[in-house]
């Protein structure tokens, strides 16, 4: 990993999850500060910077994967927020989650929809 990966990762994470890098580093500083650095450098600094997909498409893929996993509710909610931040609509997010019924089953899709509903309600309360 390089400083360039870290700097590029910070740019991407701030577009997708404004202020998240600070919160991530703060939450991990007393137990695993390197983990926060790895998150910024690798997925956001290397994977998200690969050619071929824009940030919106990458976030759609991430929402689909986390929905299918079915065991990462907080990360799913974070990436639903992120998808909205890079241009996804609520309808697109719902459709991506519904698409997972065919590949991950109804329980994962239902849990994903519940996570999306929570995010949408949080956003509506903030208005």
Characteristics:
127 residues; mainly alpha; AhpD-like
The average pLDDT is: 94
Number of domains: 2
- The CATH class of the largest domain is Mainly Alpha
Biggest sheet overview: none
- Write the element-wise H/E pattern from the N-terminal end onward: HHHHHHHH
The 3D shape can be described as globular
CATH fold title of the largest domain: AhpD-like
DSSP helical segment count: 8
pLDDT < 50 stretches: none
The fraction of residues assigned to DSSP E strands is under 5%
Could you give the count of β-strands?
Answer: 0
The CATH homology group name of the largest domain: AhpD-like
The CATH architecture of the largest domain can be given as: Up-down Bundle
How helix-rich are the residues, as a percent range?
over 70%
Radius of gyration: 15 Å
Quote the distance from N terminus to C terminus.
Answer: 40 Å
Decide which structural class fits the backbone.
Answer: mainly alpha
């Amino acid at each position: 990993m390089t400083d360039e990966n870290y700097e590029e990762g910070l740019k991407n994470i701030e577009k997708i999850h404004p202020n998240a890098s600070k919160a991530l580093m703060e939450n991990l500083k007393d137990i695993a500060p390197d983990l926060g650095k790895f998150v910024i450098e690798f997925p956001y600094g290397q994977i998200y910077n690969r050619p071929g997909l824009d940030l919106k498409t990458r976030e759609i893929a991430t929402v689909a994967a986390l929905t299918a996993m079915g065991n990462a509710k907080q990360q799913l909610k974070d990436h639903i927020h992120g998808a909205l931040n890079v241009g996804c609509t609520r309808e697109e997010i719902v459709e991506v989650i519904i698409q997972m019924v065919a590949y991950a089953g109804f329980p994962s899709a239902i849990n994903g929809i519940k996570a999306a509903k929570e995010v949408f309600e949080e956003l509506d309360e903030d208005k």
